[in-house]
């Protein structure tokens, strides 16, 4: 049988995402933003898709967002995860359609809801030097 | 009038379909050649009449059970080919027919064969999922797999959740679609599903990735289809009644994933529909039926809205009112679709459209069918075709 704690995939930083993952290690949510047209881009990439310039730089954002959508996974077999578990697509406060994926760590699957306000938190990924941006419910 | 060069210049003159089973008990080559022999016989043609081949992949060697132009050339004992290609718009089954239609319409070849074959994974267990996150997750998967998001059904579940919560769709409406398609499958001897399905059974089924449950996902099968496409001016010499290819369109979405796209209700953008009807010079109201690839139930409302058959936010109500059932205003997936006929990635839809237009659809025949839509695409690459007699 698989041992979930050993199998959870570890993200690999590349040239485009180095600032994002370095920020996460410092518990800062750093999103790529175009120095020319101010457009936020996530996942990180090398060129701004709005103005085609190599002007994306990491910028710390508020860490606030709302759940745009989510699902509750019930199938077994995803390494590192025991169903049921929820995965959220979070729309960041900075820009419509700017999405990040994560788990709302303090929210059981049955309490997930589209439109729920969340705030970034960070999870050290066991067995690696990577830190994952994650989410928790915004306190009312 | 704009000269759309391909318009009505090619026709489907032969179709073959093995039928869908849980285990064909034969090698992939045997399975796809059953469909090829049937299609050639249907057209009254011999292998030597084929001078073009298109398949879902164009690799030198077969991709699993899916044949390539090379493997088919070998299977048919041909000395070589004038033309070969992959699928237009990456849309496996219909895409292969569409690229053949373009080739035939523009003089690349005269008579082309398009083939698709699917075989169920014979190995059981987690590896059967299309799991994409390696132990080290890179590229876009670095932002998905560490969160347990790596199986395709999860993407479709997340899209469905958004549509349920903000786009006027309900699970009961999706259930109506699934149940209607199951009753169509019961009138289709090629379908793998032989038992009736009720809305209660649909709603009570186990979750795959909530809000998608067991009957929202297509049914893996062993099956193959083959389609013979020739020049319209030669089609009348063939044995069967030709079905004319009016137009084919493809669309490439803005991203290869269905996660980071800004508006989940427009995964197939509305531009696709406007462009398609204009170029096909047909009004969607004139359709006799539609065969819309349904790898998951939710593809159908997405397609209906993208093609402008209904307005955004209205697909759920349209489906719930029974418009897609046999006898409804737009009978859809009359063969049962991928959900109930079997997972042929739209291959069954192509064959069904041809049989409907020839009046060969038996108990599920749409009366007086003259114009049919076929769409294939369950990723941001899609293909649509308009066929008529």
Describe this structure in words.
The complex is a heterodimer of chains A (140) and B (389). Chain A is mostly beta strands and 140 residues long. Chain A has helices at 4-7, 18-25, and strands at 10-11, 30-34, 40-41, 56-60, 64-73, 85-92, 99-102, 117-124, 131-137. Chain A contains two helices and nine strands, in the order αβαββββββββ. The radius of gyration of chain A is 16 Å and the shape is globular. The model of chain A is unreliable at 1-6 (pLDDT under 50). Chain B has helices at 28-43, 69-75, 92-105, 152-166, 171-185, 199-204, 232-235, 270-280, 299-306, 315-320, 337-340, 347-358; strands at 10-17, 52-54, 83-85, 111-118, 136-137, 207-210, 212-213, 223-231, 243-252, 289-292, 371-376, 381-388.
CATH architecture heading of the largest domain in chain B: 3-Layer(aba) Sandwich
**Helical percent range of chain B?**
25-40%
Helix percentage of chain A = under 10%
Mind summarizing the main beta sheet of chain B?
9 strands, mixed
Biggest interface, residues from each chain: A-B, 43 and 47 residues
CATH topology of the largest domain in chain B: Peroxisomal Thiolase, Chain A, domain 1
SSE string of chain A, helix = H, strand = E? HEHEEEEEEEE
Cα distance spanning the termini of chain B: 22 Å
What is the subunit arrangement here?
A: heterodimer
The number of distinct structural domains of chain A comes to 2
Number of strands of chain A: 9
**What value does the Rg of chain A take, in angstroms?**
16 Å
Structural class of chain B: alpha/beta
Individual helix count of chain B? 12
Spans of chain A of at least 5 consecutive residues whose pLDDT stays below 50 are 1-6
Structure summary, number of beta strands of chain B: 12
Strand order of the largest sheet of chain A: 7-6-5-8-9
Summed over residues and divided by their number, the pLDDT of chain B gives a mean of 92
CATH architectural arrangement of the largest domain in chain A: Beta Barrel
Low-confidence stretches of chain B: 126-130
